[in-house]
Specification:
The chain has about 600 residues and is an alpha/beta fold. Helices cover about 25% and strands about 25% of the residues.
C-alpha cells in the first residue's frame, strides 16, 4: 500500500511540474541474427503514454533480481500447449539450466500459463515468460515486433522471451542466456537484470515484409520450399481478409488478381521484388499468407491477356502404361502405375500433365503424341503441369528433357515441390535441383510455383489449382502423396478433375474446403486406385466419365478395393470408365460419350 501511495504522490508531482516526459528511443536497431541492448525501447508514442510510462518506471525498481544470494527469485512460464519436447519447451528448459548454475537451493520452477479456477494471475510475481503465453505482458511485447523478429524485454515484473515463430523463440532464449552469463555474479550468486535491457534480433527477414494481420492469430509459419514462406493466421473472417487486402495496398503492395472458389477467397499482390498470395478457407477460418521472391516464380497470366485463334478441335489423351501390351489381359507387371495426360488446345498448343517413368518409352510416347496431334515439326506446350515429384509422374519429363528439349517449345512449367525440411517424407521424389536443371533446358520457359486459388487461362482451357501441400500445413509431411497437386481443368465447358496421387488427408481437406464445387464431368482416379482416393471425394465429384491411370494387371487386382467402390456402385454417376492399360486413349472435348479413339 505504501508503494502505491508513494507512486501516486510522485505521479502528481510529475504531472504538476512537467508538461511532457520525452524518452529517447532512437537507438533501437533490428538486424538479421543480431542482438542489441537498448534502453526504454518499448514505449508508446503519445505524450500521455510517455508520462504514464515514466510513472511506472519510477514506481518499479530499475532492476529485476532473478537470483539473490543463490536463491531463485523468479519463475519460468511457458504456454500450456507447449510440451517439454517442443521448441518453446526446450527454450524454457535451457533458461532454467543456465539459472540453475547459480542457484543453490534448487528453487527455480518451470510452470505454464494455465490457471485453475481457484488460481489468480499475479502481476507482481517475477516471471520469465517464454513464448507467446496467455499473459498480457507477452502479447504487449510481441505485438511490437515483426513476424520474423524476436525479443527479450521487461514488461512490469515479467521478462518476455518472445517471437511470433517458435524457432525464433529459441533464438531469443539463447540471447537471454548469453546476457545472463555476461551479468551474473558467480561470487555473490546473483543475477540482476536491468529493466531497461532489450535484446532483439531477426530470425526471418522475409517474414518481416508481411504486414501484421489484424483480428486473427498467427499460429505458425511454414517453409513452402523454393524460398517461399507462409504465415498461417487462425480465427479469421471474410471481413478481416478483405480488410487485410486493403492494408496490403496501403503498405505498397499492388493488386494483381483475385478469385473465389466455393466459399474460399484468394488474392495475389506484388511489390517490386515479391509476390504475396493470400488464401482464406471458410471451413477452418484460416488465412494463409505466402510470400516469395518474384525471381523465383512467374505469375499466372490474366484472363484479359488470353487471346488466340482456333485452328484445331480440343482433345484429351491418356497415354498407356502396359509397355508392349495389345490386350487387356497382358502387360508388364513392373510398370503398372504413372500418369500422362495431354490436352490439345484450340490454338494447337498443349497442356501436358505429369508423364510417367524415367524411360525412353515414356518420353518417346509423349513426343509422338504431340507431333502427331499438332502436325508440326516443333510442337508447343502451353503448360507442363507436375502433380508431384515421384518417379512415375515426373520421371518421363526428366528423360524427355535430355532428348527433346530442342524439338519442342515449353511456355511454362507449373509445380509445387515442397521444402525438404517439412517432414520425414519431404525428401522423397526428385530434388528441386534435378527438376530445375531439366526445366532450364527449355529456353524461355516460365517456371511458376503453384498455390491454391491460382487460375491459369490457357487458350480455351481454364486451370484452377485447388490443393497443394500448403492447405495441409503446418502438419508434418509424413506421406509424400499428400504433397500432390489437385486441379480442375475446364475446356469448352467440360470440367475435369485431375487428382494426381492426392492422399486421404488431402481428399478430406478438399471435401471440407470445396464440397459440391468439386462436381465435374470427368475425373482421374487418385493414386491409380491404390491408397488415396475416397468414396466421399468421388461422391462430391459425381463424374460421368473416369480416366483410370493403371496397367491391366493391377487394375484387375485393385478395382474391387472399397476406395474404388463408387465407380461400380448401383447408384454411380459413372457412364464410361477408361483404364490406361497398354492403350493410347483420346477423347474429343467436350466429351459426350462418343467419339473416343483407342489405339
Amino acid at each position: 500500500m505504501k508503494k502505491k501511495l508513494l507512486a501516486l504522490f510522485l505521479a502528481v508531482i510529475i504531472l504538476l511540474s512537467f508538461s511532457a516526459c520525452i524518452i529517447d528511443n532512437n537507438n533501437t536497431e533490428t538486424t538479421d541474427n543480431t542482438t542489441n541492448t537498448t534502453t526504454n525501447a518499448i514505449t508508446e508514442t503519445t505524450e500521455m503514454a510517455e508520462t504514464t510510462e515514466a510513472i511506472e518506471t519510477i514506481a518499479l525498481s530499475p532492476t529485476l533480481e532473478l537470483v539473490a544470494n543463490g536463491i531463485s527469485q523468479c519463475v519460468i512460464v511457458r504456454p500450456y500447449d507447449a510440451s517439454d519436447d517442443s521448441t518453446v519447451g526446450k527454450a524454457a528448459t535451457a533458461i532454467y539450466t543456465q539459472l540453475n548454475k547459480i542457484v543453490t537451493d534448487n528453487g527455480i520452477k518451470i510452470t505454464t500459463d494455465y490457471l485453475t479456477s481457484d488460481q489468480e494471475y499475479d502481476p507482481d510475481t517475477l516471471e520469465i515468460l517464454v513464448g507467446l503465453t496467455g499473459y498480457a505482458e507477452s502479447q504487449n511485447v510481441i505485438s511490437k515486433i515483426g513476424y520474423g523478429d524476436y525479443i527479450v524485454a521487461a514488461e512490469g515484473n515479467k521478462i518476455v522471451v518472445g517471437a511470433w515463430v517458435d524457432d525464433a523463440v529459441e533464438k531469443a532464449a539463447f540471447d537471454l542466456i548469453s546476457h545472463i552469463i555476461s551479468i551474473q555474479d558467480e561470487t555473490l550468486k546473483e543475477i540482476t537484470f536491468d529493466r531497461s535491457t532489450v535484446l532483439t534480433g531477426t530470425y526471418n527477414s522475409v517474414l518481416n515484409l508481411i504486414p501484421a494481420y489484424e483480428n486473427g492469430t498467427l499460429e505458425s509459419t511454414y517453409d513452402c520450399g523454393n524460398n517461399s514462406t507462409m504465415a498461417i493466421i487462425s480465427d479469421t473472417t471474410v471481413d478481416s481478409f478483405n480488410a487485410y487486402a486493403v492494408k496490403l495496398q496501403n503498405f505498397g503492395f499492388e493488386f494483381y488478381t483475385n478469385n473465389i472458389m466455393a466459399s474460399n477467397l484468394y488474392a495475389t499482390y506484388t511489390s517490386s521484388k515479391f509476390v504475396l498470395n493470400i488464401i482464406y478457407t471458410e471451413y477452418d477460418k484460416i488465412t494463409r499468407i505466402i510470400i516469395e521472391a518474384q525471381s523465383q516464380t512467374a505469375l499466372p497470366g490474366l484472363e484479359s491477356e488470353n487471346t488466340y485463334t482456333k485452328v484445331k478441335d480440343s482433345t484429351i489423351t491418356m497415354a498407356g502404361l502396359d509397355y508392349g501390351a495389345t490386350t487387356s489381359s497382358s502387360g508388364s507387371t513392373s510398370y503398372q502405375n504413372g500418369i500422362c495426360l495431354i490436352v490439345r488446345l484450340e490454338n494447337n498448343t498443349f497442356i501436358v500433365y505429369d508423364g510417367g517413368f524415367n524411360r525412353e518409352h515414356d518420353s518417346l510416347q509423349i513426343y509422338n503424341i504431340l507431333q502427331e496431334q499438332s502436325g508440326t515439326s516443333r510442337p508447343v506446350i502451353a503448360a507442363w503441369i507436375f502433380s508431384h515429384a515421384h518417379g512415375d509422374h515426373m520421371g518421363a519429363f526428366l528423360n524427355f528433357s535430355n532428348t527433346y528439349s530442342s524439338l519442342v517449345k515449353v511456355e511454362k512449367f507449373i509445380l509445387n515441390r515442397p521444402s525438404s525440411n517439412v517432414g520425414s517424407a519431404s525428401d522423397e521424389g526428385y530434388s528441386w535441383s534435378t527438376v530445375y536443371q531439366a526445366m532450364n533446358k527449355f529456353s524461355g520457359a516460365e517456371i511458376i510455383k503453384a498455390h491454391p486459388g491460382q487460375v491459369f487461362y490457357l487458350c480455351n482451357a481454364t486451370v484452377k489449382i485447388l490443393y497443394t501441400l500448403e492447405l495441409y500445413a503446418p502438419k508434418d509431411l509424413t506421406y509424400f502423396n499428400t504433397s500432390s497437386l489437385a486441379l480442375s481443368v475446364e475446356v469448352n465447358g467440360f470440367k475435369m478433375m485431375w487428382l494426381g496421387d492426392v492422399s486421404e488427408d488431402a481428399n478430406s481437406i478438399m471435401c471440407k474446403a470445396y464440397g459440391d464445387y468439386l462436381e465435374s464431368d470427368l475425373t482421374t482416379v487418385s493414386h491409380h486406385g491404390y491408397f488415396g482416393g475416397t468414396t466421399q471425394l468421388y461422391t462430391y465429384i459425381k463424374p460421368t466419365y473416369v480416366l483410370w491411370p493403371m496397367g491391366a494387371i493391377h487394375y484387375e487386382s485393385y478395382k474391387s478395393q472399397s476406395r474404388n467402390s463408387y465407380f461400380f456402385a448401383s447408384n454411380t454417376t459413372v457412364k464410361k470408365l477408361f483404364v490406361a492399360k497398354g492403350y493410347i486413349t483420346t477423347l474429343p472435348l467436350p466429351y459426350t460419350g462418343t467419339g473416343e479413339i483407342i489405339t
